[in-house]
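Re: that chain you flagged

S.,

Sorry for the slow reply, it's been a week of failed gels. I finally had a moment to sit down with the sequence you sent. For the record, here it is as I used it:
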Amino acid sequence: MKDGLISIGKILKVWGIRGEVKILPLTDNPHRYRSLKRVISVTPNGSESILQVGNVKFKGKYVMLSFKGYDTSEKSSPLVGSLIKIPKEELEGLPEGSYYIFELIGANVFSVDGRFIGKLTDVITTGSNDVYVVEDKRKEILIPAIKDVVKEIDIKKKTIIVQLVNGLDEM
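Prediction finished late last night. Pasting the structure tokens below so you have them in one place:
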């Protein structure tokens, strides 16, 4: 997260001659794009632009967006490769017990008996449940993000308490 901005998509390519772009959503709720009025485009070299959202369409798992003032493919082509971001304050609320991945990254992970396991460095999204990637100086451990294993998450303290299952507790 850079300067309070959260990535919600990546511009893959220009789509058509009217300047629409094809976006890979980086959100569990791609329909959130319908309510967007503006976004921040951050190019691979770090330059930022505020873009006013025009039309929003869905094509399979992709989002097709048009931006006001970007009405030709020539005008939109410099946006390819950019991340689409929004200010953290504009994130949609989540149900209790649900967290954004950026809130979890960097959390210290402890076993229920208080032993430090490592830092959460990544979250792998699978079809059934997420998997937390936890690293210490010696190795990486994969922890299934299920209620039987993850006992407590404290976002303010950046801590996660887990009950390691057989095979995972041999550290």
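What I noticed first: The mean pLDDT is 89.

Talk soon,
D.
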